[in-house]
Design brief:
With about 80 residues, the chain is an all-beta fold. It has strands at about 5, 20-25, 35-45, 50-55, 70-75.
């Protein structure tokens, strides 16, 4: 099980059941803790629907009182090929 967090302006940005693209931060203990990546994912307000957990944070870092669940479908490379 992985644990991620995301910064949003409002919960309306996280529509359940649709594939979304956003940047997450890994909170799973280990060498990759606090690394960020762009992902395609499905999110749900039900914390038990998907295996991984997603903590929601608002603009100034305030944590939402209920964790969501997330299913990462894949990583996205946002860096243009000419800069790799």
């Amino acid at each position: 099980m992985y644990k991620y967090d995301i910064f949003v302006e409002s919960l309306a940005e996280l529509s359940a059941g649709t594939e979304l693209e956003f940047q997450v931060r890994n909170l799973t203990p280990g060498i990759y803790k606090y690394t960020q990546k762009w992902v395609k994912a499905l999110v749900s307000p039900d914390p038990d629907e998907y295996a991984d957990k997603l903590l929601i944070r608002f603009g100034r870092g305030q944590e939402h009182n209920q964790p969501y669940s997330i299913k990462v479908l894949g990583e996205i490379n946002k860096i243009p090929e000419k800069f790799l």
